[in-house]
């Protein structure tokens, strides 16, 4: 009897730990432990006590899961595990077409990509044709999603 109770307790501890270390492995092992406890109950006491034990532990496991989720979302401990911050970002916003025709200078060698400076602001750019040395005067030919296309002035 102690072995059966021990297997059930270990299974519920694993179910509890599954909340903190998700992945399913702990829940699967816990489920297998409950099945083993059910088998041992069947072997020692018969089918009815084994079925009752299996049903009761399954219901208790589901109830425990929902209670854990409810309590952990409201407790100070649970709040440490929850991400309340929002991540805001943008992926290289489209450059303004108003830069087309403006003049600037290359900050790095464009072979064919590098950095240019236009009105004290740095932009990623590519040379329209070939290779441009650092410090070469340029003008913006067009604006693409991730860079400016420039040509030697």
Q: What is the strand and helix layout of this fold?
A:
Layout: H1 2-20, H2 25-45, H3 47-74, H4 76-81, E1 103-106, E2 113-118, E3 121-127, E4 137-143, E5 148-152
Parallel strand pairs: 3-5
Antiparallel strand pairs: 1-2, 1-4, 2-3, 4-5
Helix pairs in contact: 1-2, 1-3, 2-3
Apparent shape:
rod-shaped
What oligomeric assembly is this protein in?
Answer: single chain
Helix content: 40-55%
Structural class: alpha+beta
Radius of gyration: 32 Å
Helical run tally: 4
Summarize the biggest pleated sheet.
5 strands, mixed, barrel
Question: Could you list some keywords that capture this structure?
Answer:
single chain; about 150 residues; alpha+beta; OB fold (Dihydrolipoamide Acetyltransferase, E2P); 2 domains; 5-stranded mixed barrel; 4 helices; about 50% helix; about 20% strand
3D architecture notes:
The chain is an alpha+beta fold. It has two domains: 2-81, no CATH class; 97-152, Nucleic acid-binding proteins (OB fold (Dihydrolipoamide Acetyltransferase, E2P), Beta Barrel), CATH 2.40.50.140. 48% of the residues lie in helices and 19% in strands. The protein has four helices and five strands. It has helices at residues 2-20, 25-45, 47-74, 76-81, and strands spanning 103-106, 113-118, 121-127, 137-143, 148-152. The chain has a five-stranded mixed β-barrel. The longest helix has 28 residues, at 47-74.
């Amino acid at each position: 009897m102690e072995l059966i109770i021990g297997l059930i307790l270990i299974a519920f501890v694993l179910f509890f730990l599954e909340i903190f270390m998700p992945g399913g492995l702990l829940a699967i092992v816990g489920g297998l432990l409950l099945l083993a406890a059910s088998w041992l109950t069947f072997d020692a006491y018969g089918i009815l006590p084994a079925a009752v034990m299996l049903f009761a532990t399954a219901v208790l496991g589901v109830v425990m899961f929902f209670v854990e989720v409810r309590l952990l979302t409201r407790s100070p401990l649970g709040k440490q595990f929850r991400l309340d911050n929002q991540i805001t970002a943008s992926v290289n916003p489209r450059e303004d077409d108003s830069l087309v025709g403006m003049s600037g200078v290359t900050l790095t060698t464009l072979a064919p990509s590098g950095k240019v400076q236009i009105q004290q602001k740095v932009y990623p750019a590519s040379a329209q044709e070939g290779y441009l040395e650092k410090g070469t005067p340029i003008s913006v030919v067009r604006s693409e999603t991730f860079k400016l296309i420039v040509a030697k002035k």
